[in-house]
Write a structure and sequence with these properties.
Structural class: mainly beta
Number of strands: 29
Mean pLDDT: 84
Largest sheet: 4 strands, antiparallel
Strand content: 35-45%
Strand order of the largest sheet: 1-2-3-4
Shape: elongated
Radius of gyration: 44 Å
Distance between the termini: 105 Å
Helix content: 10-25%
Number of helices: 2
Length: 433
C-alpha cells in the first residue's frame, strides 16, 4: 500500500501543534484534546478533555474574581455621581432662582462713605413642598444706588411669615430706623450696613422693661421720636438721641421745656392752603424759616398759610399763628422763591447748600410732576427735571451722593445726575418675581 503523507491536525480545533504522549497518542497544544491514530492512518480517534488550558483557566479565574469587584465599583461610582448631582440640585433649589419673594417698599439713604444705598425688604420662602409663607424668612438686600449691584444680603431669622415695612426714617444722629409689622424696631448702621433689632429693655428705661407691644416712628414734624405702646398698654413718645420720654399727651406741651443748648437752625417747607380759609386763592410759597432747636430734642415744623387770626378781636390776615410761633420756637421766615408757582409740592431733601423739591408747575390735572434743585443760600435754580419721572408720585426715600440723587418709591429707583438728568429708572421688585 502506498504511503500518504498527511498533516496532523487536532480533530477538535484544527491546530497543527500537538505533543506526542506515546505511540500514536497526541495532545493538542491549543485546546488540550487528546487523540490517537489508527494504524492505517485513516481514522483519527479523539477524546475531548473539559479541563481548560492553564492560561484559559487563569483568565477565567481572574474574570470570576474581578467581575463582582468591577460591578460594585460601578455601583459606587454611580452613587457618588448621583449623590453629587442631587447635592448640586439641592444647592440650586436653595438658591435665589428657586425662591419666591414678597417684596415690600424700597428705602434709600447715603452711607457714611457717601454712596447711595437702596434697601429692599420683604420675606422669602423656598419654592418647594417644604416652603410656605408661614415659615418665610424676612430679609434685607442692600443695593448700590448707582450701579444697582447687590452689596449685602441679610436674613432676618427671627422675622417669619409676612413682612410689612411700617415706617423708615433716618434720625439726625445718622441712625436709620426701620419698623416691621408695627412691633419690630431695627437700626441700620450706615457705615457697615449691619442691622440690629432694638428691644424695649435696650433703652434701660423702667417704662420699657416689659417690652414693646407696638412701636412706630412718631410724626415727622415733631422731630426724631419713637411712638411706643408697651406690653402693659402704656403709651409713650420717646426721643432716643436726647433720651427724653413723654406720654402721648404731654408731648404736645414739650415746646414749653427749656432747651439746654438751643441753636438757630434753618429749614425749608411749603405753605398750605388752609382749609376753610378766606384766602384759598393765595399761591403756595416755598418758605425758608429759622427756629431755635437742639439735636434730638422735640421740635415742631411750623405750618404756614394765609388765614384769619381766630384769636384777634378784629379780622386779621396772618401767615402763621402765634401758637405755631411758640410751638416751633420760630424766629424768622421768608418767601424763598417769590413769584414761583407750585402745585402739590414737597421738600424732598435739604442741606446747607442744596434743597430738592418736587411739584407740578400748573394746576392742570394732567400736569407732570417735576424735580427742581435749588441753591439753599440764594434760591438760584441749579436744575429742573421733568422727563423720565413717570410713576414717581410718592417719593419714599432720597439719597444724595457726589454724582447726584437717588429717589425711590414702592418698587422703582431713579438715578438723577448732578446736572438733573434721569440716568436710569429700575424696577427692583421685578428682579425677584
Amino acid at each position: 500500500m502506498p504511503t500518504h503523507i498527511k498533516a496532523l491536525k487536532c480533530p477538535q480545533c484544527g491546530s497543527t501543534r500537538a505533543t506526542k504522549i506515546s505511540e500514536d497518542h497526541y495532545r493538542c497544544d491549543s485546546c488540550s484534546t487528546e487523540f490517537y491514530l489508527d494504524s492505517d492512518d485513516i481514522t483519527i480517534h479523539h477524546k475531548v478533555e473539559t479541563k481548560p488550558a492553564p492560561n484559559t483557566f487563569l483568565r477565567r479565574l481572574l474574570l470570576i474574581i474581578l467581575a463582582p469587584a468591577a460591578f460594585f465599583s460601578l455601583i459606587t461610582i454611580g452613587l457618588i455621581v448621583w449623590g453629587s448631582s442631587r447635592e448640586e440640585t439641592s444647592r440650586e433649589r436653595d438658591g435665589e432662582e428657586h425662591m419666591s419673594y414678597a417684596c415690600e417698599r424700597l428705602m434709600a439713604f447715603s452711607s457714611t462713605a457717601g454712596r447711595p444705598i437702596v434697601v429692599l425688604c420683604g420675606a422669602a420662602r423656598r419654592d418647594d413642598s417644604s416652603g410656605d409663607w408661614d415659615h418665610a424668612k424676612g430679609f434685607m438686600y442692600f443695593f448700590d444706588g448707582e450701579t444697582y449691584e447687590i452689596i449685602k444680603k441679610l436674613e432676618l431669622p427671627d422675622v417669619t411669615g409676612s413682612v410689612s415695612v411700617t415706617d423708615a426714617r433716618q434720625f439726625e444722629d445718622g441712625t436709620y430706623y426701620v419698623v416691621l409689622n408695627k412691633k419690630r424696631l431695627f437700626a441700620i448702621d450706615r457705615s457697615t450696613l449691619d442691622v440690629k433689632e432694638i428691644h424695649g429693655e435696650d433703652y434701660k428705661l423702667p417704662e420699657f422693661t416689659e417690652g414693646f407691644g407696638k412701636v412706630g416712628l412718631y410724626f415727622y414734624k415733631y422731630g426724631d421720636a419713637l411712638e411706643v405702646e408697651t406690653n402693659l398698654g402704656k403709651k409713650f413718645v420717646y426721643y432716643p438721641i436726647a433720651n427724653k420720654l413723654y406720654t402721648d399727651r404731654s408731648i404736645f406741651k414739650a415746646y414749653e421745656d427749656k432747651l439746654p443748648a438751643p441753636q438757630l437752625r434753618t429749614h425749608f417747607t411749603f405753605s398750605e392752603q388752609m382749609t376753610g380759609s378766606d384766602y384759598q386763592d393765595e399761591q403756595i410759597q416755598l418758605v425758608r424759616y429759622q427756629a431755635l432747636e437742639q439735636l434730638g430734642y422735640p421740635r415742631y415744623i411750623p405750618s404756614f398759610g394765609w388765614e384769619n387770626d381766630r384769636h384777634s378781636y378784629y379780622p386779621k390776615k396772618i401767615f402763621v399763628s402765634q401758637y405755631v410761633v411758640e410751638q416751633s420756637r420760630l424766629q424768622s421766615y421768608e418767601d424763598f422763591t417769590p413769584g414761583s408757582y407750585y402745585f402739590s409740592p414737597t421738600v424732598l431733601y435739604e442741606s446747607a447748600d442744596q434743597i430738592l423739591i418736587s411739584f407740578k408747575p400748573t394746576a392742570a390735572a394732567d400736569a407732570k410732576k417735576m424735580l427742581r434743585c435749588l441753591d439753599a443760600q440764594t434760591g438760584k435754580v441749579l436744575w429742573s427735571c421733568s422727563e423720565g419721572l413717570d410713576g414717581l408720585d410718592f417719593c419714599l426715600g432720597v439719597a444724595r451722593f457726589s454724582g447726584g440723587y437717588v429717589l425711590v418709591d414702592y418698587s422703582h429707583s431713579w438715578l438723577i445726575s448732578s446736572e438733573g438728568k434721569v440716568m436710569t429708572c429700575v424696577d427692583i421688585h421685578s428682579r425677584f418675581r
